[in-house]
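User: I'm designing a mutation panel for Conserved protein, MxaS family and want to avoid disrupting the core. Could you give me a predicted structure to guide residue selection? Please restate the sequence first so the numbering is unambiguous.

Assistant: Good idea. Sequence first, for numbering, then the predicted structure tokens:
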Amino acid sequence: MLPSYIKPFSYQIPWKSSSVHAGDHLGIQRGLGLEYKGNASLVDYPDLRRMDVRQSLRDPYEQVQVRLFYHDSITPVYAVCDLSSSMQYKGSRRKIELVQEVAASIAYSVSAENDVFSLIGYDQHLLDDYVLPLGYQVHEALERIDAFTGIDALGRGSTGILEVGPLLSQNKGLVFWISDFHMPLDTIIQAMNMFSRHQVVPVVLWEEEEYRRLPRFGLGTMLDPETGRDRTIFFRESVRAKFITAFEQRRAALEDLFLAFESPPHFVSGVFEAEAMTHYFEKYLTA
């Protein structure tokens, strides 16, 4: 039985897959797809089922011509999940639960498209228990994703993202990078440079409680995920305004950074909406 938090969505890729395996995306291999590629002589491509009578009659060398088509192919899809300390933040819900929801929805959606899926979890290093190579093992992926909520990662950073590159295929793929991106911009730039062969979809997880629903006046307690300790802050309007301004500036910086890599970010706050993800692909990644 599938977890109730799975919310499948539709996606497409704006490039032709180089995979030789049959799938649902346009490919560059010659095969049995529907996209016309060109003609060749029957000698070079002996398949009478694809004989082109009109071109054969026009051929000045009187050779029998056959039609060639592009082979519909699969594409590799990755869910790269930030499982570091900041994912322990709890507003209306724990961020790690939102990571779980997004990753499981990706895995199920990829399975529905007959593509190959890989799960990659990291904190300050790669987490072997949450790494699955490309394949069709969707149920195993969902089992590992379901275990995300048992992770206790307080005090752990997110530099493991810089170890992800070698786990990605040489063929162009779709990389969903799921994180709150509360890490140095230089680290994000290094990672994006490593992912440059692929199409990256940055899924940015923010909670309204982090910056908008703060006390206007009085003491407030906030969890420092890097240490696991509570921090007491005396809030007043000026302090609250600084939090809001800092997050707005951070959002603008992230948008500029990802757009420079032609990877528009998708912001998720509190609840993952499958329709919004489908709309993201329709808006930004239409072939």
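For picking mutation sites, this is relevant: Helices lie at 53-58, 95-112, 138-146, 185-194, 237-260, 274-284. The chain is about 25% helix and 25% strand.
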